[in-house]
Amino acid sequence: MDAARRRYLGLVTVAWSIAACQDALQDFPAAPTAMAGDEADEGGDADDPRHGGCGGLQRGEAWSPELVGEAQGCELQAPPVEPEPPEPEPGPEPGPSLPLFVEGSTTFVVLPDTQYYSLRFPGVFSAQTKWIARNAIDRNIAYVFHLGDLVQYNKESEWKRASAAMAELDGVVPYGIVTGNHDYGPSGDASTRETLLNQWFSFDDAALMPSFGGAFEAGKLDNTFHLFDAGGHAFVALLLEWGPRDEVVAWANDVMSLYADRLGILVTHAYLNHNDRRYDHTDDAHPQTYNPHLYGTPGGVNDGEELWQKLVRQHRFVFTLSGHVLGDGTGYLASVDDHGRVVHQMLSNYQHRDLGGEGYLRLLELEPDGRTMHVRTYSPWYDQYLTAADQNFTIELDVG
């Protein structure tokens, strides 16, 4: 497939492999031989999709390539698998397939970190986007936002899988994607700002979208803005790169000033932490892991608190969306901006769950009153949603 294949709009994927690591294997057969290149898509253990031979994960344990590989000193390289959707053990919280959708509501869909799907479980990724496409009309889906880390190691094979999954939305639902730290660098380590994103998602095709407003750099989808009407409001959505540089933040301020009459949505990979506080590298009283300042990404970065001070609090943002964080994979913070308006800041990331996330995504359902928004956490893979208070809640948008 042409690496710059034409697209309607979108972005991402990831793959993993296992080098021979015989000393680490105790309870499982020898690991499969590492495959040449990144295009090995066949194989894997169909009985246990998490089994890679390195580290001996037991059924029911959360799968993580970092934890498995680093614990055993293995280089992770294994073919993806296509697991059947059995009843998980342990599985997601029980509940009906979907909460009642209020007639006339508008839905925004949020796709958190999909890196392990692109790496190991592409079928789960595709199940998410196929469900979105099937329900685009019935649930009045206005936009889909991907929170970054489309892939794990910034490899061609991963981007190929991510691109195929996101292609399910082409011509059906408008969407935008931001870059995460794993989307940058020669091995997804964010040591450079080089990414294969723009080889697999066409800037020219994205620019043809009616909602596409523009980009920070011509020919690159790392930083974009989108203009659309939904739920009785005019929106401007800012989609910013991993650890936005100062010049990107300055550009974002210009965009928000130009469209000051619209409600703002900020989408960026790392903003809120699972302790319900913005990322702040100067806050020693509340230590946080994985702050953008810790990665050495060139060009400088801004974390959540810096984005709040330099951008969000100054404009008419109604909510922010971010991923990146592990922990319990969820967070929420309401803050008052310089104009006395409430800004809802939300984190979601389920990569620490089985199968790299169990297919969970976020549904933001804006009722016909244009203010009441129900936040749902739903898995098309299991046809279930999470019912805990931090996964299923209601907010009131400050649209005044």
TrEMBL record:
Residue ranges annotated for the Calcineurin-like phosphoesterase domain, each copy included: 107-325
SUPFAM superfamilies (UniProt xref): Metallo-dependent phosphatases
Transmembrane spans: none
Gene Ontology MF terms: hydrolase activity
InterPro entries: Calcineurin-like_PHP, Metallo-depent_PP-like, STPP_CPPED1
Organism in which the protein naturally occurs: Nannocystis exedens
PANTHER family: METALLOPHOSPHOESTERASE, CALCINEURIN SUPERFAMILY, SECRETED PROTEIN
Coiled-coil residue windows: none
A Pfam family it matches: Metallophos
Domain of life: Bacteria
Biased composition annotated in UniProt, kind: Pro residues: 80-97
Protein name per its UniProtKB record: Calcineurin-like phosphoesterase
Gene3D superfamilies in the record: 3.60.21.10
